[in-house]
Amino acid sequence: MIAALRGTVWEREAGKVVLDVNGVGYLVHTTGRTAGALPDGEELSLHICTIVREDAFLLYGFEDRAEREAFVRLREVNGVGPRHALAVLDTLTVDQLRQALVNEDVRTLVRVPGVGKKLASRLCLELKNKLAAEFDVPTTPTRAGRRAEADPLPLALAQLDYKKREIDLALASEAVPKLGAAPLEARLKAALTLLARNL
Known about the structure:
By secondary structure, the protein is α+β, with helices and mostly antiparallel strands. The protein has three domains: 4-62, CATH 2.40.50.140; 65-135, DNA polymerase, domain 1 (Orthogonal Bundle); 153-197. The protein has nine helices and five strands. It has a five-stranded mixed beta barrel with strand order 1-2-3-5-4. α7 runs antiparallel to α8. The protein is elongated, with a radius of gyration of 20 Å. The chain starts with a strand and ends with a helix.
């Protein structure tokens, strides 16, 4: 598993660079922004995410560890492949991505080519708390000064293919117990009963 490469840029094009490491040229996929900023002929280091497939050994390179970790997290979301993940990071900086996820800013996320409202909502649901913990993004504090506890119900509903509108409906309903008022299983059952009535 290759985690980092140090070498010089030998060739580059949109989204790809060939990094010369001691006479061996490694093809590294990057964002267009990164590829455009890499200096020709100068030694540099890239953080690498290695993806091994049956028919390919692919390297994805990033200027810093935070960008690489964001790429890894994005790929954990169902329906997000390497191309989608790179497109997100080519459109938004890591800080912009953090804020969009924490604020559930779907409008910002759909600016990414290939990301529609459904996928943007899924990114928010699945990565909001992961990226907040990973990158120390501020979340709404409780009165005691601690971070608000993440509610697992939205993710459970999203995994059952419910849309954000339906999830919001369940969370706002008095028929569904609030976080801490009942076990997740009971809350999920109440939410499913409510949503079945509204179909």
